[in-house]
Amino acid sequence: MNAVGSDIRYRAAVATAVVAGAFSAIVCALLVWNYINSDVADPLDSEQFRVLKAQLKDNSGDEQLKDRIRRMDLELRREYFRRQALAVRGGYLLACGLAVFLVSAGIAAGCRKSVPMPAPPGNQERAEVRSSALARWAAAVIGAAFFGGASVLAIIAPTEGFPAGDGHIEKPTRQVARFPSAEEIAKNWPRFRGPGGLGISAYTNVPSNWNGKTEDGILWKTPVPLPGKNSPVVWGNRVFLTGATANARQVYCFDADSGKLLWQRDVTNVPGGVAKPPAVMEDTGYAAPTAVADGQKVYAIFANGDLVCFDFAGERLWALNLGLPDNMHGHSTSLAMWRSLLLVKFDQGRSGEGKSEIIALDGLIGREVWSKSRPVPDSWSSPIVISAAGKDQLITCGNPWVISYNPADGTELWRAKCLDGDVAPCPIYAGGMVFAVNTGSVVAAIRPDGSGDVTKTHVAWTAIDGLPDISSPLSNGKLLWLMETYGTLTCYDAQTGKVIWENDLDMEFNASPSLVGERVYLISTDGVTIIIEAGLKYKEIGRAELGEKVYASPAFTDGRIYIRGEKNLFCISGAKR
What is the pTM (predicted TM-score) of this model? Predict the structure, then answer.
């Protein structure tokens, strides 16, 4: 390398390093300033905000005070999320600035070590001019780039993390967007039918004998203030339920050990909500969907489209209304989660109207991440998330399609045309196959490793015996059980579709069957639990009576069963309290 070329590169590298170093120092100073001010100006600890809220307790009817609190809350939240976004993007810019500084410094050091060679006399002056011009050009380009990056940071930071539109976040939170591990989920009962929505207990030490009249085996029972057909959700020492009437909606948190009602929260003043109650069937009611919990927060949805999030202490974090569902029986689809995304299947309307959709929301702040239109009418089946064919899949059912989506972005992976009618039973995944069923249609076993329309290529088998209209299927991968509302229990070979046995229990069932080790638990609407062997022959091994009507499915944890009765929540532990 000649002396002129080395000198040009050296000056350009030094100029770039100086600009990058200065930029990095400025960004670092801004980040420190932002951190110090964020710590001081935490909206959760705003003294003025606390004073106003304290005043409101003594002047609950002061509308001007309420309006002032709302406006201050909005400004505090905007500032909070602005500072969060500034920290994230500032960190990225600082990393880029330091990287450019180190690379430029390295280049300069390398050029400095080069042995200088004298330039021809006639070219010396031109070389110096070129060197200076190139250095100035490099400095200008780098400076412009960093200035542009800083400008972008300043423009986008105020809105990042804060939902546009109605500003429905109730309270900023220091929680990070974490999600529970598979092990945490397996130890709890976070959604309808537990982990994966499969109705399978991770514990085998659950009781098989109890009596609601004598209270033998009943650890506790606690009244639930408002009615609902949703099932218990259990996480740690908390049990969650919802209840509703035409004009009231509530979320409940019970202590799992004592049954004490820790908190109950009215769901009111939901942004976008409508005053008109929906028309629902009595069998569905206003609180049919089961909530979902992620270890930090619980989410609930109601028949009027209200969707709400509370933390485990009962603080409302955000709420929104999805619109009054056009659903002839009433909305009853339960919620699901994938990582930190809340998944809402919102099927409604008639075939061809295009009203149905599936929505993924950021669970932390309630902002929509993605949504996809669905080619189905109203349905009542709840979605599940499975891991199959090397990827996570969101499985949904609605007339006539079983559709798999990528839960990360809503991309459709495959679909199979195999359902008909008003679809209510949920799909399950067992033995490498997705099972979907509905009365008046078929039960279909689908291999989930296809793409596009897999109706003719990946439906392993279909059958028409014992099809349920409410209860969801149950499988251990070898056997598949279907429970009809009027008590006919049919057992299939899960791999071939052959009927193994059929038995009429002469009872009505709304609750879905559950699997505990080698036992199947069946709870009738009269509150009678029938326990049978999970085998090739029908063999009853026990019965237990709750003494109260049951329309919801049970929840299983270590040594316990939680059952929602028509009026009470029961905890069954096998010992008299």
Answer: 0.73
